[in-house]
Amino acid sequence: YQAKRDRSGVEVYEATRDGNTPDRLGLLGDLRRALDSGDVELHYQPKVCFDGKIAGLEALVRWEHPQRGRVNPEEFIAMAETSGLMPQLTEYVLETALGQVARWRKMGLDVPVAVNVSPRDVHSPGFAGAVAARLARHGVPPGSLQLEITEHVLLEDPQRAADTMAGLTGHGVKMSLDDFGTGYSSLVHLRKLPVSELKIDRSFVARLVLDNEDAEIVRCTVDLAHSLGLLVVAEGVEDDETWERLRDLGCDAVQGWLVAAAMPPDEATAWLRARGEHGWRRPNALEREP
Ligand code: C2E
Ligand code: MG
Ligand code: MG
Ligand code: MG
């Protein structure tokens, strides 16, 4: 925290200087309690291939605050990250997601789940082993878990991050690079990272049909990723036109409201059951399409 000496030379805590306003400190305490009480839950958003095959589901954290209502994940995740609460949040999310995968597998729904992890997690030395132990405890095969990381893992200690990721892939866990295009990592780094999937950030996808430069960025990203042997997922696909452009650019899978928003577990189960055999079909698809 930021300390400031008052006139008597005594250090006084200036809460607002480091962003920890009383309001924010209150929210942090609430989050800590919510992780124990079950007010934090996971919703699941499908990733689907262009042939309709369901590639997996991404677990997205949701917090329903008793007074404030739904709190924006970006907001409380940033808070957890700077306050040291991230390990607990990640533990909670992994535990909940793996429990869900195990339940789905018992129902005959064998679908991989992706969990978002923060740079903090990837820099913690015991992380890969802890994930492997957790998988074993739930009886979930490592291939049913995917971890999504952002390029920000490369900012602090790229070597440590690469080691942890190598540990995870060594156990059979798949790694995915989220929000691609928004960070600062070079292509050299991308080549060194043991990821098998790259997710194009929504900001590029959203402008794809309107802006030629964004279309070119997406085209280059797809080509680059494919030349490195990676699958490409586009996030935030909201309309048919974007879906078609992405398919024509050679993208492998999409995620977005066009397919489905993130759903609570029961709704996700029903969604999977309804689409299990034939996969997902675009409601407005023209008849000439298969
Ligand atoms: P992300 O991993 O890139 O997740 C995609 C975000 O885009 C999600 O926001 C999702 O609800 C939203 N989204 C999906 N499809 C569409 C669409 O078609 N249109 C629009 N406009 N938005 C769409 P959400 O759930 O608010 O999560 C925001 C970010 O918070 C995530 O970005 C991820 O970085 C982080 N996050 C979420 N859950 C977790 C978690 O359990 N752990 C960690 N460490 N981070 C998480
Ligand atoms: Mg993600
Ligand atoms: Mg993303
Ligand atoms: Mg994002």
From TrEMBL:
Skewed-composition ranges (Basic and acidic residues): 282-290
Q: Which domain of life is it from?
A: Bacteria
EAL domain: which residues?
Answer: 24-276
Q: What name is this protein filed under?
A: Bifunctional diguanylate cyclase/phosphodiesterase
Organism classification, top ranks? Answer: Bacteria, Bacillati, Actinomycetota, Actinomycetes, Kitasatosporales
Q: Which residues of the full protein are shown?
A: 404 to 693 of 712
